[in-house]
Design a protein that fits this description.
Layout (H helix, E strand, L loop, with lengths): L8 E10 L6 E9 L5 E10 L2 H7 L16 E8 L11 E4 L2 E3 L5 H4 L10 E2 L18 E5 L4 E2 L6 H4 L5 H11 L9 E5 L3 H12 L3 E6 L5 H7 L4 E4 L3 H6 L4 E6 L8 H4 L2 E9 L11 H7 L2 E4 L5 H14 L5 E4 L4 H9 L6 E5 L7
Parallel strand pairs: 10-11, 10-13, 11-12, 13-14, 14-15, 16-17
Antiparallel strand pairs: 1-2, 3-4, 3-8, 3-17, 4-5, 5-9, 6-7
Helix pairs in contact: 4-5, 4-10
Length: 360
């Protein structure tokens, strides 16, 4: 039986999909499941374009199931709720991020760390509980289990809040892990000033830290400081600047998805400092042992965040009025946006106006 023709899949949806590794996005009509007892149906308003979308449409990681409907930075309005759903109602402003399903039984699911469940399934290119392939937010509606849905604070605009569902929680989670959310006054470094990096700078400043941006692009210094509020800027290709920055930072968030060595970045950390990796280079990264050993430093990874953390992140962003800097596009501009994203030609996140509500 074709995946999209299950008997329970009766809702016809208009979306946008890639059908092969050319990565070209074209209109795509498909079916979604009926709204189950634990589900909510969501009219999609906006969907951010994440670098992961680019990897999946091009099958860069060799795991894409075509056709793929990308999108895991989704904001919208609830149009229907299942009979078991008590925490949402029709008309609520909500968001859906990377997670669609998990086992609900393991230690991680039971401790609000379901993003580390070994049966985690994603919002697109995953396998849902009913055995069907998940389709993401490049579509006009979505059906989601209510346990994987969060509220969007009323004061946050739906378009600029959309990328928080992936980019936002991806940097918030390691910040919380490193005690940066509640304990101000640390020296924090952010490597890379893209979709993830620009949100990390905003959050770290809101949480009361001294923020240093580390970038290969000297041209980004003005915007890092004046637009985003960074305190310092280090050009990572400038040996003198890197030398001056040695042993000055408590925590560094590395958001870069391109190949690079961690050695010089580790040297910027104080003794006992932590380097948190959230970018995902497709080849192994270089990790020399001496900067680790001689500085008693740690390197750790972090993968998105739990639903509890995602809601906490959204609430914190509402409190501090943190949003992403976005460039709105229409659905027929997705392919051009992908081309520009591949060249890092965006400040700082493309967001698709799915419902056509904004004047573009």
């Amino acid at each position: 039986m074709a995946l999209e023709s299950r008997p329970s899949h009766t809702q016809t949806v208009a979306g946008w999909a890639a059908h092969d590794s050319s990565g070209k996005i074209v209109p795509f009509i498909f079916k979604r499941r009926e709204t189950g007892v634990n589900d909510v149906s969501i009219k999609v308003m906006y969907c951010g374009i994440c670098h992961t979308d680019l990897h999946f449409v091009n099958n860069d990681w060799g795991i894409t199931m075509y056709p793929v409907v990308p999108g895991h930075e989704i904001t919208g309005v609830i149009t229907k709720v299942g009979s078991n759903v008590k925490n949402f109602k029709v008309g609520d402003r909500v968001g859906v991020g990377c997670l669609a399903a998990s086992c609900l039984e393991c230690e991680f699911c039971k401790n609000s760390q379901e993003n580390y469940c070994d049966q985690i399934q994603f919002t697109y290119n995953g396998i849902f509980w009913d055995g069907t392939v998940t389709y993401g937010g490049y579509s006009d509606m979505l059906v989601a289990d209510h346990r994987y849905v969060v509220r969007v604070p009323d004061n946050l605009p739906m378009d600029a809040a959309a990328p928080l569902l992936c980019a936002g929680v991806t940097v918030f989670s390691p910040m919380k892990d490193c005690q940066l959310v509640e304990s101000p006054g640390k020296k924090v470094g952010v490597v890379g000033l893209g979709g993830l990096g620009h949100v990390a700078v905003k959050m770290a400043k809101a949480f009361g830290h001294h923020v240093t941006v580390i970038s290969t692009s000297p041209s980004k210094e003005t915007e890092a400081k004046q637009r985003l509020g960074a305190d310092s800027f280090i050009v990572s290709t400038d040996d003198e600047q890197m030398q001056r920055g040695k042993r000055t930072l408590d925590v560094v968030l590395d958001t870069v998805s391109a190949q690079h060595s961690l050695g010089p970045i580790l040297e910027l950390l104080k003794v006992n400092g932590t380097l948190a990796l959230v970018g995902a280079p497709d080849r192994p990264i270089e990790l020399p042992s001496f900067p680790l050993i001689f500085g008693k430093r740690s390197v750790k990874g972090s993968m998105t965040g739990s639903m509890k953390e995602t809601q906490e992140m959204m609430d914190v962003c509402g409190k501090h009025n943190i949003t992403c800097d976005v460039e709105l596009i229409k659905p027929d501009q997705i392919n051009q946006a992908f081309d520009r994203l591949a060249r890092n030609d965006v400040r700082y996140r493309f967001v698709i106006d799915i419902a056509g509500n904004s004047k573009l």
